[in-house]
Amino acid sequence: MSTRAAIYARISRDAEDEGLGVARQVQDCERRAARDAFTVVDTYIDNDISASTGSRKPRPEYDRLLADARAGRFDVVLAYSNSRLTRRPRELEDIIDHHDRHGTRFLTVVSGDDDLSTADGRMTARIKASVDAAEAERTSERLRRKHQQLAESGRHIGPRPFGWDFNDDRTLRINQAEAAVLRDCVQRVLAGEGIWKITKDLNARGVPTSTGKTWATQVLRRVLLRWRNCGLRSHQPLDKDGRRTGPVALSPGQWEPIIDRETHERVVATLTAPERRTNNRGTEPKYLLTSVAYCGECGGHVVGTNEFTYEVKGGLRKDGTRGPSRARTYPHAYKCPTAGCMKVQRTMADVDEHVTTFVLALLARDGVRLLGGDPVAAEQARERIAALKAQLDLAVDRYADGEWTDEQVTRLNARLRPQIEAEEARLRQAQPDSALADWADADADVLRERWTAADVETRKALIRRLGVKVTIHRVGPGNAGDGYDPSSVSIVPA
Ligand SMILES: [Zn+2]
Questions:
Q1: 3-state SS string over 258-302?
Q2: 465 exposure class (CB count in 10 Å sphere: 0-12, 13-18, 19+)
Q3: Is 469 strand, coil or helix?
Q4: % of the chain beyond a pLDDT of 70
Q5: Which of 23, 230, 401, 481 is in the most buried spot, having the most CB atoms within 10 Å?
Q6: CA of 23 to the centre of ligand 1 (A)
Q7: What pLDDT, in 10s, does the model give residues 261-301?
């Protein structure tokens, strides 16, 4: 039997630069196979092109190659060069291990064949791998420097940005119509309008993006956050693995700004304010009503539980064998966790849907009133706070003049503090919540869509803000799950 060979080729950006397309890699390997009278049993090709220079992309074909080698499908792996096969020295160690265990030989067209079963062969292979790695690092360093230089030169790189047109030499000049749209969006953001609403408005007015598409909130947000808008070019250095690192560096761009820097900084501050960034939280709560809904028995909060599956063993038969086992799955649920109570439990999906329907209906009907704030109430609260604080000030003055005793001041303070705090809470309630403003004025379909897209934290914030109180009541014995009775959960608006 002739020697069976597998060919491995890898498409990558560096290979492209060297004119080493995948076809050329495979051809050269086939030629080598023919010369050595190998029978090629399979060809494995990975596409390793990724945005980062030091690729950590998985290589599914490489994994399949190693699995097939373990299964003994071939004796030899052929690659164009060592660097096609392994991307960094650590991967060579895997190849060496593999050779030790399964005896697979790894041969190349241009890097020679290292006998991995001898110490000398392994040393040569390791030296070559570290030379390759150094070369790859130098290449990516060159690229990084090139990028840095382009950034520092202040030229615009990339497609046409919204707000500008290209001159013949690809420098930018302001597109007055788009610039006006941009300035308008900036004013609206600074006035506290939600990005979502502005996006909707742009699309309703038929204003396209720079590529002629309709706007998405994330796209508009990015456009508004560009430092380019105020004439600056931002550059974030990449490390050797192509990951963004360090702070963003700003340098003057070679184009006319559309808004001034101070205004842009306010836009950035507004759009990146932590209370606005309800997405991408590190510790996102998993369940909608954990710490929100109450137990109808003890009044404590319920918690969400994971679904779990357990196996029910089949019964013993007369002949001593067992019947088939069955798996039983309990779905996600809300439970009262309070020791001594734990009397309430309900299927999570049912309660969530019930509450969701309620909240969305409430928003569709009363969203503007409930989320939009109440300027009159806010003003009244402010006045009362001012009056209460004036009383306190007066008492302090009297104390300073020797008219009041220490004890009198303390007593007054104890009486006024809770009142001030209550008024401050009223003031908070009466002020519009900019993070939730987008939810105030939308119709039911849009609300449902946005609710589906929102993260749990945002949904919880809405329920809290609306003051909706959810209580899960105990149902009679034998409640173990058949059907959901909506009357067993009370949902009360504030
Ligand atoms: Zn309870």
A1: CCCHHHHHHHHHHHCCCCCCCCCCCCCCCCCCCCCCEECCCCCEC
A2: middle
A3: strand
A4: 88
A5: 230
A6: 68
A7: 888 988 887 787 655 544 333 334 578 998 889 999 988 88
Residue ranges making up the domain that contains 419: 374-431
| Alpha carbons 16 and 306: distance in angstroms, whole number | 49
Within 10 A of 173 (CB to CB), how many other CB atoms are there? 11
Same domain assignment for residues 223 and 247: yes
pLDDT tens column, 215-259: 988 889 889 999 899 998 877 666 655 566 666 777 788 889 999
Cα of 291 vs centre of ligand 1, distance in Å, is: 12
Q: 172 and 289: one domain?
A: no
Look up residue 228 and give its DSSP letter: G
CA of 425 relative to ligand 1 center, distance in Å: 28
Residue 455 tokens read as 């993260």
CATH number assigned to the domain comprising residue 71: 3.40.50.1390
Q: Kindly state whether residue 156 falls inside one of the protein's structural domains.
A: no
- Ligand 1 centre to CA of 456 (Å) is 23
Put simply, whether the predicted model's pTM sits higher than 0.90 gets the answer: no
* Amino acid at the residue 265: E
Give the environment of ion ligand 1: residues with CB less than 5 A: 295, 297-298, 336, 338, 341
For residue 38, give the amino acid letter. Answer: F
Sign of CA dihedral 120, 121, 124, 130: negative
User: What is residue 20's predicted lDDT score, i.e. its pLDDT?
Assistant: 65
Residue 74 and residue 136 share a domain: yes
Distance 491 CA to ligand 1 centre (A): 17
Q: How much distance in Å is there from the Cα of 475 to the middle of ligand 1? A: 13
